[in-house]
Amino acid sequence: QVQLVESGGGLVQAGGTLGLSCAASQRTFSSYTIGWFRQAPGKEREFVASITWSGGGKTYYADSVKGRFTISRDNAKNTAFLLMNSLKPEDTAVYYCAASRYGLMSAIDYDYWGKGTLVTVSS
């Protein structure tokens, strides 16, 4: 199994920048697509971004974050990252990292999940 632990959440003002990290316990981390999802109170969990393991990593982004967020990974350190720029109050949510063999954007395709880290953006 793959154990994932997110870190880096916190309080930031609108327009600010915050970076999230996702550390994996397995050395086979590089075989998985890594996705970031978020869930705000009263809302469904939604896709944010993902990055594949093949090549240098193909990235995918939700339209709501495209151009503002950047996903990356360091397979040698079994770590994935989400750099969030130009944050908006509507970005406030619990952010989860997840791992999948084949999934890209659908939460049901992801096999392993972290416990989440809270990001709060104030206006």
Q: What does the model show?
A:
The protein has strands spanning 4-7, 10-13, 18-24, 33-39, 46-51, 59-61, 69-74, 79-84, 93-100, 112-113, 117-122. It contains no helices and eleven strands. Strands 2, 4, 5, 6, 9, 10 and 11 form a seven-stranded mixed sheet that branches. It has a four-stranded antiparallel sheet with strand order 1-3-8-7, with no helix packed on it. It is an all-beta fold. It is globular and about 40 Å long. The termini are far apart.
Could you give a quick summary of the protein structure above?
The protein is built from no helices and 11 strands.
For the terminal residues, how far apart are their CA atoms? 40 Å
**Rounded average pLDDT:** 93
Helix content: under 10%
Tell me the major beta sheet. Answer: 7 strands, mixed
Question: What's the gyration radius in Å?
Answer: 13 Å
Strand content: over 45%
